[in-house]
Amino acid sequence: MGLPKERHNGYSQAEQMGSFIRDLTAENISSGIIASTLVMTGPALIILQAASAGRFTDQQTINWMFAVYFFGGVYSILMPLLYRIPITGGHSITGAAFLATVTAQYSYPELIGGYVMSGLLIFLVGISGLFTKIIGWVPKEVIASMLGGLVAGYVVKLVPAIQEMPVVGGAALISFLLFTRYVKKFPPVLAAVAAAFAALFLTADVHPAKEIAYFLPSLQIPEFSWMGLVTIALPLAMLILSNDAAPGIGALESEDFKPPIRKIVSSSGVFSVITSFFGGQCANIAGMMSAICAGPDSGPREKRYMGAVVSGVITIVFGIFAWKIVPFIQSLPQAFVSLLAGFALIGVLHSSLQTGFSGNRYRLSALAAFIVTLSGVSFLHISAPVWGLVAGAVLARTIERQLDSLSEK
Predict the structure, then answer these.
(1) What is the distance between the alpha carbons of residues 252 and 155, in angstroms, rounded to a whole number?
(2) Residue 197: count of CB within 10 angstroms of its CB
(3) H helical segments located in 131-187
(4) Radius of gyration of the chain (CA)
(5) Coil, strand or helix: which one is 89?
(6) How far apart are the C-alpha atoms of 360 and 209, rounded to whole Å?
(7) Helices (H), 261-333
(8) Do residues 48 and 330 make contact, with C-beta atoms less than 8 angstroms apart?
(9) Over the stretch 207-261, which tens digit does the pLDDT of each residue have?
(10) pLDDT one-digit tens code per residue, 72-129
């Protein structure tokens, strides 16, 4: 099903294991820790917000957390070891942000069906080689602007969150700005998260609100519908392809790796389908995490793949202990959750607006996608991000394409 085949190089398993261990360095271990921490902070909080909006049970919420982190971690171990390239796995933070707008509108089985279809779409795009063409049909400016409108609401909540928790918010903001200015090699988001947690524990008494008994993750039964295909699967697949697969592959190529693009995309689809049957929306190549593990700070180029492996191991552990972690995160003040989610998405908002509005070709289309998505309107059970995509794509392919044709004559 599009999964990569292991390449036999004549070495025994013991020799290969020894090679992997020798390739561990302080640099790639550090990069793996940073990459995994990124996906375990803001994205986890956004998942819990989406689960709360959909009124998920504790078991459904923990299934979701387990699925995306466990299978995302497995992906992050398997792919780098097969190709010796830092293909780092995780789940889509923008996909989770999108689902926060739709979980309340569908039943749980319908959501699972949407996740399954999304994974199948990604798989088909991967094995067909249509990745570039599919992304190209909807201009990248429109997709980026839709994403900007989607995450802007989270980032804007930073302001009232800092007002409500001035000590915690102030510590996070100052740390973010200082690390942005003076410490280029350490992600400012992680500095803000660490400062926020330190300030919270020093100023408040935080304990899990409840204990949740351990239970084995279970298979979920999907329910398929045309509405789920159009309003859940299609936009989710496009977000994963455009905001995770494309940046992740681009980051690898920019560091002179030669990523197997079809196999990366198709395996992301396969892992996403598996993940969906356990209640998660996806498990795929992660753009920002791959960029961290592939970068020069990860040490010698031929050993950077172990950063992705380290990230995968940590992520798996996080998923296994989701039943313990979820009650703790749920006990955090809502303003604190909004604070962390806002900081986690600042970079996404900045890059989205830059991509969406830096050129002159699709300014009207990009603006329409941004405004419609930001409005949050839902019509005919179709969420604002989908309407934003539709509005932007239609304008791009009609009005602005005609304007381009007229300007060329």
Answers:
(1) 28
(2) 18
(3) 131-137, 140-156, 158-164, 166-182
(4) 21
(5) strand
(6) 51
(7) 261-276, 287-294, 305-320, 322-330
(8) yes
(9) 666 666 777 788 899 999 999 998 899 989 988 887 788 778 877 876 778 888 8
(10) 999 999 999 999 999 999 988 888 888 988 888 899 999 999 999 999 999 999 888 7
- Cα angle for residues 172, 339, 319 (degrees, 5° grid): 100
32: pLDDT strictly greater than 70: yes
Indicate the length of the chain as a whole number: 409
Rounded distance between C-alpha atoms, residue 356 and residue 354, angstroms: 6
User: pLDDT tens, 269-278?
Assistant: 999 999 999 9
At residue 33, what is the residue type? I
Question: Counting Cβ atoms within 10 Å, is residue 277 exposed (0-12), middle (13-18) or buried (19+)?
Answer: middle
* pLDDT above 90: residue 1: no
Euclidean distance between CA atoms 187 and 38, whole angstroms? 9
Whether 7 has a pLDDT exceeding 50, the answer reads no
| The model's pTM | 0.74
The answer to whether 283 touches 71, Cβ cutoff 8 Å, is yes
How many Å apart are CA 97 and CA 61, to the nearest integer? 15
Take residue 335 and report the two structure tokens written for it: 């303003």
Give the integer Cα–Cα distance in Å for 137 and 401.
12
Residue owning tokens 């995302």: 72
Q: Are strands 284-285 and 89-90 parallel, antiparallel or unpaired?
A: antiparallel
Residue for token pair 């390449």: 7
4: confidence class by pLDDT, cuts 50, 70, 90: very low
| Cα separation, 357 vs 403, whole angstroms | 17
Lookup: tokens for 267 = 């395996």
Closest CA to 348 of 237, 193, 191, 242: 242
The pLDDT of residue 5 is 46
Count Cβ atoms below 10 Å from residue 207 Cβ, excluding itself. 7
Sequence letter at residue 110: E
Q: What are phi and psi of 284, to 5 degrees?
A: -155, 175
Mean pLDDT of the chain: 82
Q: How far apart are CA 252 and CA 117, in angstroms?
A: 27
Q: What pLDDT does 21 receive?
A: 78
Identify whether the C-beta of residue 23 lies closer than 8 Å to the C-beta of residue 301. Answer: no
Ordered alpha helix ranges (H), 183-245: 188-203, 226-228, 234-240
